[in-house]
Amino acid sequence: MTGDLVRPTRLTVPDLHEWPQFRVDVSFECATSGTQRHRFSGPRLYHVLRDAGPEFDPVRRKDRLRFLISVTGADGHRAVLSWAEIDPDFADAPVLLAVAMDGAPLDAAGPQLVLPQDRCGGRHISGITAIRVDGRYHFGAAVPGRADRATLAAG
């Protein structure tokens, strides 16, 4: 886990067993492969990231709402969540860093990002290789080398 964290760290599946474990039954409705049903267990993403110490500014009201979380899998698939989605004071989504699927440990495959609230599972990430917490992005700012794209802030 990297980014705007007081304690960035590298976590393995055995490390993730140190947090309280939660179970969720998930039903993904996919157009190409039909309905997939699985039971996942693991710690909540919120608990793991909270323990890493997101660098929220205590002076800025609701500062945590501007933080984004990017999760990357072994196949290069990436998903982005907002802090508000997982924070108990806001959406409180039970997003898991799954360490087991249908009772089988994921030690060899790596943890999986599971968002039970997503109907199709498009943000499900297998074999997580990176989690980045970012609260320092700048909307509307020019991106070097990308002058060909307009921003919504222009105008």
How many H/I helical runs?
A: 3
- Beta-strand portion reads 25-35%
Class based on secondary structure composition and strand pairing: mainly beta
Q: Give the biggest beta sheet.
A: 4 strands, mixed
Order of helices and strands: EHEEHEEHEEEEE
How do the strands line up in the largest sheet?
1-10-4-5
Radius of gyration: 17 Å
Distance between the termini: 37 Å
Task: Round the mean pLDDT to the nearest integer and report it.
Answer: 88
Helix content: 10-25%
How many strand segments? Answer: 10
Q: Low-confidence parts, pLDDT < 50 over ≥5 residues?
A: 146-155
Question: Can you tell me the overall shape?
Answer: globular
Description:
By secondary structure, this protein is mostly beta strands. 10% of the residues lie in helices and 31% in strands. Strands 1-10-4-5 form a 4-stranded mixed sheet. A hairpin with a 3-residue loop joins β2 and β3 (34-42). The longest helix has 8 residues, at 45-52. The radius of gyration is 17 Å and the shape is globular. The N and C termini lie far apart (37 Å).
